[in-house]
């Protein structure tokens, strides 16, 4: 069990004991213009989907460090302030390892947006997200972001990694355990 995992704080005894692989997911916001930067994933897991910027947390870094690193690698932006806004847990059919995704909003950042090998960045209106080209769960929890609510979402998926068979999504006062 990864000691950085926060899954044991989630009241779900069936899943607390599972191994959790840690990921980050960062959404740079342009609040003045109500825009968010997404990237079209060009390869690998989630190919051809728009998403925030993130990936696996490496063994030698904290989750927040991983979030900053993945953002700069995939978008060119260096976050100067980030807020942890959500926690997503994905359980795939026939997979003993759950995905634990730490979601952040980047309110300020430096640098220039660049296309990377992995992502083609594009700004979107926060009220007009390309959900048909995003992961199926994203349209469920994005409204929490719009309302400024922190959230925890647990999603159970079929082995096709797309079909949600069950979900438990709720607002939390704090993600202080993260
Ligand atoms: N919005 C959203 N993001 C998701 C979902 N599922 C999921 O893994 N992600 C995110 C978490 C990570 O940011 C990203 C997956 O990480 P990755 O496989 O690209 O990780 P990586 O860059 O380290 O991988 P690699 O290709 O370099 O080996 O996708 C989902 O359902 N919705």
UniProtKB/TrEMBL annotation:
<keyword id="KW-0539">Nucleus</keyword>
<keyword id="KW-0378">Hydrolase</keyword>
<comment type="similarity">
    <text>Belongs to the Nudix hydrolase family.</text>
</comment>
<dbReference type="GO" id="GO:0042262">
    <property type="term" value="P:DNA protection"/>
</dbReference>
<comment type="subunit">
    <text>Monomer.</text>
</comment>
<protein>
    <recommendedName>
        <fullName>Oxidized purine nucleoside triphosphate hydrolase</fullName>
        <ecNumber>3.6.1.56</ecNumber>
    </recommendedName>
</protein>
<dbReference type="InterPro" id="IPR000086">
    <property type="entry name" value="NUDIX_hydrolase_dom"/>
</dbReference>
<dbReference type="Pfam" id="PF00293">
    <property type="entry name" value="NUDIX"/>
</dbReference>
<dbReference type="InterPro" id="IPR015797">
    <property type="entry name" value="NUDIX_hydrolase-like_dom_sf"/>
</dbReference>
<dbReference type="GO" id="GO:0008828">
    <property type="term" value="F:dATP diphosphatase activity"/>
</dbReference>
<dbReference type="InterPro" id="IPR003563">
    <property type="entry name" value="8ODP"/>
</dbReference>
<dbReference type="GO" id="GO:0046872">
    <property type="term" value="F:metal ion binding"/>
</dbReference>
<comment type="function">
    <text>Oxidized purine nucleoside triphosphate hydrolase which is a prominent sanitizer of the oxidized nucleotide pool. Catalyzes the hydrolysis of 2-oxo-dATP (2-hydroxy-dATP) into 2-oxo-dAMP. Also has a significant hydrolase activity toward 2-oxo-ATP, 8-oxo-dGTP and 8-oxo-dATP. Through the hydrolysis of oxidized purine nucleoside triphosphates, prevents their incorporation into DNA and the subsequent transversions A:T to C:G and G:C to T:A. Also catalyzes the hydrolysis of methylated purine nucleoside triphosphate preventing their integration into DNA.</text>
</comment>
<dbReference type="GO" id="GO:0005737">
    <property type="term" value="C:cytoplasm"/>
</dbReference>
<dbReference type="GO" id="GO:0005634">
    <property type="term" value="C:nucleus"/>
</dbReference>
<dbReference type="InterPro" id="IPR020084">
    <property type="entry name" value="NUDIX_hydrolase_CS"/>
</dbReference>
<feature type="domain" description="Nudix hydrolase">
    <location>
        <begin position="19"/>
        <end position="150"/>
    </location>
</feature>
<keyword id="KW-0460">Magnesium</keyword>
<dbReference type="GO" id="GO:0008413">
    <property type="term" value="F:8-oxo-7,8-dihydroguanosine triphosphate pyrophosphatase activity"/>
</dbReference>
<keyword id="KW-0479">Metal-binding</keyword>
